[in-house]
Amino acid sequence: MSTPSLIKRPTRGLKNHNPGNLRHNPKIPWQGLIGPDKKGFCLFDRDENGIRAMVIDLHTDYVRDHQRSVLSLIAEYAPPVENNTKAYATYVADRLGVNPLDEITFDRRVATALVDAIIKMENGIQPYPAEIIAAGVEAAFDHFDTKKGTRHEG
Prior knowledge:
Blueprint: H1 12-15, E1 33-36, E2 42-44, H2 47-63, H3 70-77, H4 85-96, H5 108-123, H6 130-147
Antiparallel strand pairs: 1-2
């Protein structure tokens, strides 16, 4: 599927099928990665792969780096040097119905809510139907089952 056509002037994240605005790292061969754009952000072949990468990135921070609260996850994902991390984390936590400092469990429901909130923060809108988000989340969880949750695709 492609980015919803209801958007007149899509943001970089939506145009790149990278709604989480992940920066390109040549050491991570994401599934569906076409390469970096001119600003160094990942460019994916389709939305589901961009969402999948976002979930894997967040899960890696949760498992490997022990970022167990929304605030710590968002501080890693959207660092203060580029973002108003506290406001970002507060928004995401509100969408999850938790305090930003509460420890969360990283399951499909939480991952879906995180994706939904992060897309809105990164792009100003969240235009994706539930099916596209679910496909990206499920693809990430399939990856966790086979790769033990690591970010490295290979």
